[in-house]
Amino acid sequence: MDKKFIGIIGAGYWGKNILRNLYQLGVLAVCCDSDDKIISNSKASFPGIDCTKSAEDILNNKNIKAVAIATPAATHYHIAKKALLKNKDVFVEKPLALKVEEGRELIDLAKKQDRILMVGHILQYHPAVIKLKELISKGELGKIQYIYSNRLNIGKLRTEENILWSFAPHDISAILMLIEEEPSGLVCFGGDYLNRGIYDTTLTTLEFKNRVKGHIFVSWLHPYKEQKFIVVGSEAMAVFDDMSDEKLFLYRHKIEWKEGRMPVAHKTNYKVVPIQKKEPLKEELEHFIECVKARKTPVTDGHEGLRVLKVLTLCEKSLLDNER
Known about the structure:
Number of domains: 2
Number of strands: 16
CATH architecture of the largest domain: 2-Layer Sandwich
Strand content: 25-35%
Distance between the termini: 54 Å
Largest sheet: 8 strands, mixed
């Protein structure tokens, strides 16, 4: 296998970050995008790589053993399918597809072709989330009672997909990983304030076994950027704040029952939990490269992508049902 064996399809809003990391990791051979300006900027910023406006150039190139797909969500299934049929290993940004049956088809095809299929659920490669999982596994938080996440911003507004499919996959993936089960029930509400039918804001409530609950609040109509993930346990509470330099905090608040009837909270100062200072996207792409070279199953493989896709599909159905 040549050292430069990966091609990227889609080098725009998020794709440019994948492009940068693949280039820095020394594995990028070809960049593809339909935008002339993006192609021009890529050539200037990343000397030594080939650039093309045709995805077929990458898919038909036998020296390209793997592709990274960072195109609009509606195209993920079609491009990933073509790549797998061309015997390429595939890294596809979230979501895996827009339909559950399409996700299953990609998984089956990857197995038939003996190819790696990995989905870009970046939070599972974030040092803070990995540490949070370690704290939960060791019992540091006690029994998990409630999880919630806020992923809010005022920024890039999309017209091809709603906020649920754009933002929520990250948090759904992380919650399923931390809880280690799929929700037994959910309900989703939202609002389409800018474009009718394209939801700008959604709130999803999830219910798991043993009375564990959670919610996911996502919006691109928010006055400032907020990315918080909070886990409430019987012994402690953990806060992952991706907008903070420190990232992960532990609160050991205590609840005392006065005379067995009246709960009283005793607050404590938070403790900063040390984590490794690594770029999650680079960690994610290094994992993909390792899986391609060693023929290993990725942490966020097609099956993990399908679990998230199933939850997204149920959220979409609930969202539409509640708007009728």
